[in-house]
Amino acid sequence: MSRTNLLDRRQVVSCLLAERKDAIVIGGLGASTYDIAAAGDHARNLYLWGAMGGAVMIGLGLALAQPKLPVVVITGDGEMLMGMGSLATVGLQQPKNLTIVVLDNECYGETGGQASHTAGGTDLVGVAKACGIAEANSMTTMAEVGAFKGSLQNVSAGPRFASIKIDGANLERALSSRDGAFIVSRIRGALGFQPI
Amino acid sequence: MHAGADASSETMPAEALPTWPEDIFSILRRFDVRQVPYVPDAGHSQLIDRVLGTPAMRAIPLTTEEEGVALLAGAWAGGQRGVLLMQSSGVGNCINMLSLTQIFRFPFLTLVTMRGEWGEFNPWQVPMGSSTQAVLELSGIKVLRADRPDEVREVVEAASGQAYNACTPTAVLLSQRLIGAKVFSK
Q: Is the Cβ pair A61, B66 closer than 8 Å?
């Protein structure tokens, strides 16, 4: 993979979420959560500050519970690698309203930029396809991202997976709420569910 | 290893299958449990079959148990209740993900079939089986235990009540004595 002309992660996420409508968006631990916060706080954002490897499964639980709503998981390559088995679980369930986006900078940006497995031979798009996620693509241009964003709203053709190659820049953190009980109650409230 | 290797299901005729899995199933239905993630275990096989045959419930096989903890957090955010079925060895796989139960304060319930106790043949099951309860408690999960068939109903009823009504994360240990030690050779 060429390391030139890679995309800016904030630009990618802003583009994907610009017309999000009723979508629920889950941000994986690390910079993905900051990217989603930077695109604008929203009652249907579920920010993760831990539980590494769990983003896709949280998305699956939400997608199965709310099959008419678009559910979008945006996470990093390191977080996705830790939960790689969850791609097999998603492949088995085939949730039509779930989209998984991996922002792939081929490194662990939060911890000093150590290379991740995607810098070597690991092909997450290949893994997703092999797990039964038929619509799985790698993207390297904003034109591809722009053409892809509309499909997030399609709740009858998923699951879909995209690995978007981004640059390794460590941007200023955009801090979302870290209060998990608040975050989850806010989403439940937005969906019409009461506290216990 | 296969589901039918369980001593009870191998040696008993169909009409003599234990009734406590059916008790659990009835309670889960009454509490409107919709998502049932699991890593299969012989002790859960009857319950898994019932869930698979119930359109209102979604059986979700996992590759590893911590997936189920995260799945149930997402299910709750989306308005559904769930229960995680696993074996005692799987509890160790869940430890970091169990932090979600405290962070999200969601109604977490898991039913854990025990290995590594009561006549265990396989020594490899003993270390994790011996620490299962302590691991759960250190992770902030309340632990209840059923040792006899006739107490399963009231224990699972109490566990479901405190999990779903009070968002108190709870595990029920279904003892190996209850399930029967797995038979490896006659």
A: no
Question: Is the four-CA dihedral A131, A137, A140, A146 of positive or negative sign?
Answer: negative
Give tens-digit pLDDT for A107-166. 999 999 999 999 999 999 999 999 999 999 999 999 999 999 999 999 999 999 999 999
SS3 content of chain B, % helix, strand, coil (to 5): 50, 15, 30
| Nearby residues of B64 by Cβ (< 8 Å), 6 or more positions away | A85, B39, B90, B93
Confidence of residue B11 (pLDDT cuts 50, 70, 90): low
Rg of chain A (C-alpha set): 15
| DSSP at A29 | T
CATH tag for B3-179 (out of 3.40.50.880, 3.40.630.30, 3.30.300.20, 3.40.50.970): 3.40.50.970
For residue A101, give the nearest of A162, A154, A20 by alpha carbon: A162
Q: Does the distance separating the beta carbons of B104 and A184 come in below 8 Å?
A: yes
Whether complex ipTM tops 0.95: yes
Short-list A18, A5, A177, A164, CA closest to A77: A164
Q: State how far the Cα of B128 lies from the Cα of A106, in Å rounded to an integer.
A: 35
Tell me the per-residue pLDDT of A21-35, one tens digit each, with 9 for 90 and over.
999 999 999 999 999
Question: Which chain A residues have any C-beta within 8 angstroms of a chain B C-beta?
Answer: 24, 26, 46, 50-55, 57-66, 83, 85-86, 88-89, 92-93, 180-181, 183-184, 187-188, 191-193, 196
Would A50 be classed as within a structural domain? yes
What residue spans define the domains of chain B? 3-179
In a domain, A196, yes or no: no
